[in-house]
Design brief:
4-stranded antiparallel beta sheet
Length: 406
């Protein structure tokens, strides 16, 4: 199997462990120096698609499947699999999923439920921003179309706030070295419960692997996710409608194979699509999922890529479980995260992982793109999971020094 791993990702270790447990012979492609267990690495650059495809074809040899460990490698994985004659998503479908404006346009063409939206050109002035926001309605949400993990996403409650949000997001895009001509998205804010659906596509058919509730979902002005709990407690008919909508949304983007991670709001008019990624759930969140036979989500993804049928796993793991993603509270230099032993000792907590080393500069959302770490828990009920995660979070004390002057 060819595994394409971006230089910056949470996902490498879990995919490598899954491949080892499955006894797979891995070939690695990457655009950075990573701790990849001593395996040789084929150097690739996702921004140089054709050259990277040729290099892989020259050096790789035959494989049974091509898998991208995270978003930056998705288009390259699709292109390589296509050239090798393996099951794959079209490159354009992957690009549709990576661009929030293209998503909205594809879903509008398919008549799928979603927020009202407007695509804002880069050259739009304050008047055009205010008019677009007013056309969508207040409150609205202003988004960068190319970023993820709630980076570059702000709520605006009036025209002045929309103009300020656009200005701030443009600065975030510049810091992320995104193209200056990139448009923004302004969309209707939908109140209501939010959930995420993870699943695997095989020839366009969606098998759900997990549905997460977001009991502490933010209402703005920023939209950092914190607590995710599975299985969902929403009524069966509501979940069935949400799963149908997610499957239709993936099809409208042109996706046919591999994992998806869909975000939806359950509004007054039913399940509405927020976003969909052509990958599994991000960060280390998949570590909370264990399926029959103690399989990980990564093992299911790799097995699916090899054409093995997905097991009958329902809508979540065997036992209620959840994860708390620790947001960065303020900008500065991370000095320490204290109280980890106390957090890990909370009944129900199965792990506490801090992912940013001390001494690094950190930025809260929507400017930053990382979480401090992750708390994992299991319990007999979803409420027990929530209680364990909240109790563990309150044991932690994050110490951040003043930012380093530039």
């Amino acid at each position: 199997m060819l595994l394409l791993v971006p230089a910056r990702t949470y996902r490498a270790a879990d995919f490598l462990l899954a491949a080892t447990q499955m006894g797979l012979d891995l070939v690695i492609g990457s655009d950075g120096a990573l701790p990849l267990g001593g395996r040789p690495v084929i150097p690739v650059r996702p921004s140089e698609l054709e050259a990277s495809v040729r290099r892989i074809l020259d050096r790789c040899g035959p494989v049974g499947a091509v898998v991208a460990a995270d978003t930056p490698m998705l288009a390259l994985a699709a292109a390589v699999a296509g050239r090798m004659g393996l099951p794959h998503n079209p490159v354009d479908a992957v690009r549709n999923a990576a661009d929030k404006a293209r998503q909205r346009q594809c879903w509008a063409a398919a008549g799928l439920p979603q927020p009202r939206f407007a695509v804002l050109p880069a050259a739009a002035g304050a008047g055009a921003v205010g008019a677009a926001a007013a056309g969508v309605g207040f409150p609205c949400v202003v988004k960068a179309v190319s970023l993820s993990a709630s980076q570059g996403v702000l709520r605006a409650d009036d025209p002045a706030a929309a103009v300020a949000a656009v200005r701030r997001i443009r600065a975030i895009l510049a810091a992320a070295r995104r193209p200056a001509g990139e448009p923004l998205l302004i969309e209707e804010y939908l109140p209501g419960p939010e959930l995420s659906i993870d699943g695997l596509l095989a020839n366009g058919e969606l098998t759900v692997t997990a549905i997460f509730d977001k009991p502490a979902g933010p209402a703005g002005p920023t939209f950092e996710e914190t607590m995710l709990v599975t299985p969902s407690r929403l009524p069966g008919p509501v979940l069935a409608a949400a799963v149908r909508t997610a499957g239709q949304a993936a099809a409208a983007l042109g996706l046919t194979h591999g994992p998806i991670h869909a975000e939806l709001r359950i509004a007054d008019r039913g399940a509405a699509m927020l976003e969909l990624a052509a990958r599994c759930i991000g960060g280390l969140c998949s570590r909370v999922l264990r399926f029959p036979g103690q399989q990980s989500l990564e093992e299911l993804v790799l097995a699916s890529a090899l054409g093995r049928p997905a097991p009958a796993i329902g809508h979540g793991p065997v036992r209620p479980a959840g994860v708390f993603m620790l947001p960065v509270p303020r900008a500065g230099v991370l000095r320490a995260v204290q109280g980890r032993e106390q957090a890990a000792a909370v009944p129900g907590v199965t792990g506490v992982t801090i992912t940013i080393p001390a001494g690094q500069q950190v930025h809260p959302l929507p400017d930053g793109d990382r979480y401090l770490g992750f708390i994992f828990a299991e319990a007999a009920t979803q409420r027990g999971v929530e209680h364990a995660l909240s109790a563990a979070r309150h044991q932690l004390r994050v110490l951040i020094d003043e930012p380093i002057p530039m």
